[in-house]
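Reading group handout, session on sequence-to-structure problems. Before we discuss, look at one worked example. The prompt was deliberately terse, the way you'd type it at a terminal:

> structure DUF5703 family protein

The input record follows.
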Amino acid sequence: MAEYEIQQFEVSRTLPRGAVRRLLAEHAEYGGWELARLRRYPDGTRKVWLRRRIIKVMRTF
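And the output record:
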């Protein structure tokens, strides 16, 4: 089973949808993150969970 590193943050409701999309695209392109979950609350705030796979390097002789 794969192990993942999780990053969670909250996005303000005043931030436009396009800005949020650019933010997530930058995290994906430059940081190797993928969207695990996005939850939007009635007050307009969004909670975002990003994940990326932990790669374990094995020693070679």
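Points for discussion. First: The radius of gyration is 15 Å. Second: The helical segments are 17-31.
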